[in-house]
Amino acid sequence: MAFVASVVATLLLSVSNLTGTGHLTLYSVTYTVTLHPSDYAMFALLGAAGGLVGALFNALNIRWCAFKAKPGFRRWVGPVQEASLLAFITLISSWPLSLTRYLNAQTIHALFDTCSNEPGETVRSRLQGEFGLCTDGYSNSFGNGLLTSLGVAAAIRFCQTVLTIGTACPAGLFVPSLFIGACLGRCLALGLKALNAGGRLFPHKIDPGVYSMVGAASVLGGVSRMTISLVVIMLELTGGLDYIVPFMISVLMAKAVGDSLNEGIYDLQIVLKGYPFLHEELDVTFTERCYDIMETGLVKLNMSLRPRLQDIRVMVRAFTFRGFPIVDGELFVGYVRRSALEDLLTRMELVRGQNEVVSLEDLLPVIDSTVIRMVPHAPLTQAHQVFKQLGCQRIFVVGSFPGTGQQDVLQGIITKKNYLKFLQDGTVGHRRIPDELRLTSSHFETNGNLRFSYDGPQQESTASHIRLGELFSVLDAAAEAAGENRTEDQQSWAPSASDDEAVKTHDMNGLSTALDREQP
């Protein structure tokens, strides 16, 4: 079906010319320019400039969005008023300059295009003539204030995009970024052409259209920090296969420079809005177990108590959780979402009375029994991988209590939001131990601590004490070097391999109640 849809869309574009370019792609270019090795150095410089512009854009936009999120701002300016005000500001600021007066797509296509090299030949497009991009077939460098117009147009669109990204209505990011980069790239090309008058610096022709395309890719890469996908997008938009290497160079430089200053716009917006997105932690190791951060005191729906319809309805109204764990006695059955449970209760109330007993079989259609389960003493590294690779929002911690033969006894829960909070405030996860930190027998102390000493060159040894419980992964090596038996020390802070010992030895006091709560 996808192939059929693609064929139909391609035929429709070919017949109707919806892009207005006469080609399938929006910014199609039909010219080819032989690039000189010095051009690649300029493309790298243009990519670095795009990274700086993108980093500045991200910093300003995040600060503006954070300011708008304050209650004081929203008390006076609502989403509709904000969108209307920004639309008025955009109209007023875009109208005086011809480069910003037209739609971005039309202007970008004119900026990407090249001028003819033959004297006396007419301008290739009407917009190029109106913008003053070409004069008598040649690229116009300083005539009619073109450099000033391009710089002012880029600044205007930059400020407009900073204000509009994050509003309640859809606001473009790709096309405005392409426009800003296209203006900057053409400015650089025109400046080089002016400096190269008479061929003193470069023995080849400098084409502003190519620099405009590369500049567009660099600014968009500096804002979004995309790499391979952005190169493919630029290739598809322009159809210029000959320019894939310049795209690669500029995007790579833009990402390198931008990453050295701040994160991409999407990562920053995710953090600002508090979305539970888990990044890959390359320099953090986990020595904790699931029981260290699991949350107890859960509100459970125990079906062995034979609850009535009225009882379940009262429980749902009393708590604002998004869902409830279902247990049958001590056995964990699964998880039911609040909305699904409410719908089921509504349907059951139509045919049953309020005092009717609800059985486990009645709830089976809405119970999710395939939720992720982990044992209490499982390493937190496994929970980290589960959250990252499976994308689940919660992990149920199940085990067994002494004297019971049941293995799936619900003991707690780890939610992704709370796990991220623990990770961000440093409650869990520790920086990896450098190679210079070496364990010796003299560093094993009898008070249950390990002392690491730094033996780096030309530095005095420094000592930092780390809890024995936080170094379970290296405890065997330390105990072997010291000739000590770690049995007593281990039992004082961590459970043994069995779930029964985990329940006996680990103190659960002070852990807060947790299920995902509805945000106010």
Summarize the structure in words.
The protein is elongated and about 95 Å long. With 520 residues, the protein is mainly alpha-helical. Residues 118-124 and 431-520 have low confidence and may be disordered. The chain has helices spanning 2-16, 37-68, 71-76, 79-94, 98-101, 104-112, 126-131, 146-164, 174-195, 208-224, 228-238, 244-259, 265-273, 290-293, 309-318, 338-351, 360-363, 380-390, 416-424, 472-482, 487-491, 499-505; strands spanning 134-135, 138-139, 284-285, 301-302, 323-328, 331-337, 373-374, 394-399, 409-415, 430-431, 437-438, 449-454, 463-467. The two termini are 42 Å apart. The chain has 2 domains: 23-273, Clc chloride channel (Orthogonal Bundle), CATH 1.10.3080.10; 284-424, CBS-domain, CATH 3.10.580.10. Helices cover 49% and strands 10% of the residues. The chain is built from 22 helices and 13 strands.
Unreliable parts = 118-124, 431-520
Cα(first) to Cα(last) distance is: 42 Å
Radius of gyration: 32 Å
Helix fraction, binned, reads 40-55%
Q: Which structural category fits the helices and strands? A: mainly alpha
Instruction: Provide the β-strand percentage band.
Output: 5-15%
- Identify the overall geometry: elongated
Main sheet: strand order: 4-5-6
Number of domains: 2
The overall strand count is 13
List the total number of helices: 22
Q: What name is given to the CATH topology of the largest domain? A: Clc chloride channel
**CATH architecture classification name of the largest domain:** Orthogonal Bundle
The profile of the biggest β sheet is: 3 strands, mixed
CATH superfamily label of the largest domain? Clc chloride channel
What is the CATH class name of the largest domain? Mainly Alpha
Overall pLDDT level = 76
